[in-house]
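hey
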């Protein structure tokens, strides 16, 4: 939710991407006297937010990716590509071993 305002416009202008800000549901609010309090579920799945959090968790399992050790952003990007390639190859190898 921290990416609001100018960042959304900058991404749209420079990259042509549309950024959707997923807002948390409100946990509390005032209800006028005499009205019934609406039901608010304790847990709400937010759309597609879990994909980003899951990916960061996968990256964090690798020692070099657990902290930001790199000086250049290009090096960090290369390490992300290497880590995700390793994850995909590991899963492909597992799938091919299962199918025979």
């Amino acid at each position: 939710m921290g990416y609001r305002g100018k960042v959304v416009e900058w991404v749209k202008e420079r990259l042509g991407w549309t950024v959707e800000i997923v807002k948390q549901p409100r946990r509390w609010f005032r209800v006028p006297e005499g009205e019934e309090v609406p039901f608010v579920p304790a847990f709400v799945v937010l759309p597609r937010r879990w994909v980003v959090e899951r990916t960061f968790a996968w990256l964090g399992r690798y020692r070099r990716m657990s902290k930001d050790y790199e000086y250049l952003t290009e090096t960090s990007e290369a390490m992300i590509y290497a880590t995700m390639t390793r994850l995909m190859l590991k899963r492909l190898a597992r799938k091919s071993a299962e199918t025979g």
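The chain has a mean pLDDT of 82. Helices lie at 6-15, 49-60, 73-99.
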